[in-house]
Amino acid sequence: MLQRNFGNSTLNVSALGFGAGHIGYDDVSEREAHGLLDRALDLGITFIDTARGYGLSEERIGSWLPGRRDAVVLSTKVGYDVDGAEDWSAAAVTGGVDEALRKLGTDVIDVVFLHSCPLTVLQRGDAVEALLSCVDAGKVRVPGYSGENDALAWAGSSGVFGALQSSVNLADQRSRSEVLPAAAGQGLGIVAKRPLANAPWRYAERPAGEYGETYWERLRRMGIEPGTDDWQGTALRFSAFSPGVSTAIVGTSQVRNLEAAAAAVERGPLPDAERRRWEDAFAPHALAWAGEV
Known about the structure:
By secondary structure, this protein is an alpha/beta fold. It has 13 helices and 10 strands.
């Protein structure tokens, strides 16, 4: 698996990362979760992304981690749902970091993202300062922001974060062109989330109420299909090899899906002509779709 520098930090990450949201819920046992994490590491996937909102995900990573800590780069997301603390307050950020350290069973977390907090919260400053204080205290290596649109743009140009996480996929190319390349050029590590756009190609009819409904509609309006690989391979290769991207994270509860994702990234970037086809299909809709997802 291709390994990359994570911005200007000392961290190196795999081009494909594991999004650990699925392993925190009842439909995946702790044993199955550990099996997925083992297979990810076997495949050369060294970046593991979780969040305090992902059920038991942090705890299950923590019970798997002994003996493997130096082999992986861990990221989590904070800022909300801390007992006795208002969401996005300094106490919520610090409390989230402290709880994550305990659940993960580690002395330091490699990357911690403020998780989709509004622009007004970022500009107010207390959440950001609390995260930077955790860096100063040695609890966090790289401070990050995870989100979209105006808040993402502010975070990318603020000079206070070392990492960004944003959607990058065939049907969601805004941050890919407007924010992430410049942020990467300034030394930020870039995590591409939702590279599969929730796989809307699975549905013959509009999946009303499903998370990928907007992406399904967008792909229909773009009016093209993969020309050099299958849907999953095209989507992953587009995202993982987008300008500035350090790692593209895929969440799954199935080992076979993780293996297929790794195989797709191993095939390398899409041919230039295929990549341009998808860029050209998105471009006429970029303004209309701004801020939708």
